[in-house]
């Protein structure tokens, strides 16, 4: 179970979900989500395929808007466009293939500094290149800074995507199955790096995973997304909600088995793997 000490967690609410719901036309994806997340928490999200985990991250990022209820950051509704206070890393294809590793990190910040041109020049650019190099060192990619993404392994590409997100100094880091495609050994290295970054930079993290063990190991808190109501004739009539909200340090073997069984039951009912 979790080996993380939530030393970076404060008592200050950063994110608040009040009766939050999200639908696409008649398809209800999420309904009645209620929770408060303090600054510095590491929330891991598990649930069956299609239950709305990525949709929830998109609401936090601001690329999707809530349909009902509220999603607040610092007590204010999250703006409906991505801002530098939130960074995201996807399972794949987060980086630009035509840019070098170094330029991939630089561009993350260039769009923040010059929203019209997406470029900065002169002394500003020199400083940005230096900062990019520092981030590449932090994620262990200094030696690859002049390479292109196709020359990197899957793990290196995810390190690059993390550097690209972190150069904007986000307060909230959103990770959508970032290690799902990686080999177990590489995943272990990535876990270590993410935990170090989370603690050093006092990030609030939301991470989607399909691996319950990974969720327990990394998080300080684990959410299970599931449907409490199911209409077999109209599966889109009801959405998922947070059915388990557990402080991970207090999770015991019985809770683990209970969540595992619940997920298995949902998988069978929904016919998804
Ligand atoms: N832009 C969209 N328009 C219509 N429906 C959408 C849209 N985005 C997502 N959905 C639907 O919302 C539901 C939830 O999708 P989402 O990707 O959030 O699930 P998930 O839990 O992340 O799944 P997975 O674990 O397979 O990645 C799916 O049925 C999907 O088809």
UniProtKB/TrEMBL annotation:
- Return one GO MF term: ATP binding
Q: Which UniProt keywords apply?
A: ATP-binding, Nucleotide-binding, Transport
Report the SUPFAM superfamilies cross-referenced here: P-loop containing nucleoside triphosphate hydrolases
A Pfam family matched in the record: ABC_tran
- Can you tell which superkingdom this protein's organism belongs to? Bacteria
For this protein, the record's InterPro entries field holds: AAA+_ATPase, ABC_transporter-like_ATP-bd, ABC_transporter-like_CS, ABC_transporter_ATP-bind, P-loop_NTPase
Any keyword Ligase? no
Domain (ABC transporter): give its ranges: 15-252
**Which CDD domains does the UniProt entry name for this protein?**
ABC_NrtD_SsuB_transporters
| PANTHER family for the chain | ALIPHATIC SULFONATES IMPORT ATP-BINDING PROTEIN SSUB (PTHR42788:SF13), TAURINE IMPORT ATP-BINDING PROTEIN-RELATED (PTHR42788)
Family label = Belongs to the ABC transporter superfamily.
- Official protein name in the record: Abc transporter, atp-binding protein
Q: What is the lineage of its organism?
A: Bacteria, Pseudomonadati, Pseudomonadota, Gammaproteobacteria, Oceanospirillales
């Amino acid at each position: 179970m979790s080996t993380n000490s939530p030393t970076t967690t404060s008592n200050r609410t950063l994110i608040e979900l009040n009766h939050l719901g999200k639908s696409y036309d008649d398809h209800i994806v999420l309904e009645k989500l209620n929770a408060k997340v303090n600054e510095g928490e590491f929330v891991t999200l598990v649930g069956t395929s299609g239950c709305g985990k990525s949709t929830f991250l998109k609401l936090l990022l601001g690329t999707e808007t809530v349909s009902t209820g509220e999603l607040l950051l610092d007590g204010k509704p999250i703006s409906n466009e991505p801002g530098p206070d939130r960074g995201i890393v996807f399972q794949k294809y987060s980086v630009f293939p035509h840019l070098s590793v170094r330029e991939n990190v630089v561009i993350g910040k260039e769009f923040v500094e010059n929203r019209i041109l997406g470029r900065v020049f002169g002394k500003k650019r020199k400083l940005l290149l230096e900062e990019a190099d520092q981030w590449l060192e932090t994620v262990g990619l200094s030696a690859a800074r002049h390479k292109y993404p196709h020359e990197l392994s899957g793990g290196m590409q995810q390190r690059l995507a993390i550097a690209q997100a972190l150069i904007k100094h986000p307060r909230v880091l959103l990770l959508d199955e970032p290690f799902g495609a990686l080999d177990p050994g590489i995943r272990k290295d990535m876990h270590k790096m993410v935990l170090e970054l989370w603690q050093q930079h006092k990030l609030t993290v939301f991470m989607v995973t399909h691996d319950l063990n990974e969720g327990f190991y990394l998080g300080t808190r684990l959410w299970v997304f599931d449907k409490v109501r199911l209409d077999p004739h109209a599966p889109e009539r009801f959405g998922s909600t947070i059915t388990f909200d557990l402080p991970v340090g207090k999770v015991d073997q019985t809770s683990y088995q209970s969540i595992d069984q619940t997920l298995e039951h949902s998988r069978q009912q929904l016919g998804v793997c």
